[in-house]
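Task: fold both queries, return tokens.
Query 1:
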Amino acid sequence: MGRIAVFASGAGSNFDAIERAIANGTLEAELVLVVCDRPSAEVIKKAEHAGIDVFQFAPKSYPDKQAFEKDIVQQLEQRHVDLVVLAGYMRLIGSTLLESYEGKIINIHPSLLPAFPGKDAIGQAIDAGVKVSGVTVHYVDEGMDTGPIIAQEAIVIQDTDSYDEVKKRIQSVEHTLYPQVISHVLKGALST
């Protein structure tokens, strides 16, 4: 069974979906750590309530990204993490983590990449007037949402849709697609 760490900076809706998928047996994995860079994030309370270890840190208390990423790598190695799963983690991953977990870090993004990378992809899609957007799961590299794509699923955007309606449909896709992709990636990672 694969051991995963979830990196999140906010409410943790994808954390919830992953945890549910593990509980109901659709994702054969053990969630062993949540890494969070915001001490007030809801995901911390959710993880603690579920009995999952949390490593929370204040990036500004470190001299640089390399320093806090060294601490993160140590936390991951202590728990024998097989796969790092970014779920609303609002930081670019640096070379320290990328080198230690090469090919073992994935991210979910609320657009059909390469369209609308970065922050507020849903707002970018609505502002651009596109009729189709969706969700992308990809491997993480040094760029912003530029790593190799693993899976995508589209949604239709109606002219009358509000931001919240589009976000709700995007999250519904995320919460189903991400656990499926994590399962697939873990099976590949564990068989190599």
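Query 1 returned. Query 2:
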Amino acid sequence: MCKLAVFASGNGSNFQSIIDAIEGGQLQATCEVLICDQPSAKVLERAEKANIPAFVFKIKDFENKSAFERAILEKLRDYDVHFIALAGYMRLIGPTLLEAYEHKIVNIHPSLLPAFPGLDAIGQAFRAGVKVTGVTIHYVDSGMDTGPIIAQQAVEISDDETEESLRKKIHTVEHVLYPQTLAHVFEKNKQEASNK
């Protein structure tokens, strides 16, 4: 059983979809801890409701990125975490975590990467007037949304689309694709580990 940590900064709807998939038996994992950098984020309410412990921190309490990532790493080791899923975590992952969890950090991004990386990808796509955008799940490297792509699903933008309706469409796809992809990644990891 894969021991998972989820990193989130906001509402946490993807966190919720992961929890629901675990509880429904579609994802063979346990969510050991939520890591959150926003003490007022709604995702914390979701974690509390699901009885999942949360490690909440404020960036300004640490002298630099390396210091807060070391604190996170300590917490991940306390919970014996095998894998990290980023679910709306609004910070770039630094070398401290990348080295400790090489090829074990996955992110979800609301566009068809490499198009529209970074913040507000849905708004970027909408303003660009493209006819198709989508969702990407990828491994995390040191760049912004540049790691190897694991899965993608296209979402068409209709002529009468609003940014809000597009956001809803994207979220609907994310909430199915992310748990499915994580299940595939965990299974692949398990097979690779047993082949060693």
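Both queries returned. Flag for query 2: The chain has one domain: 2-195.
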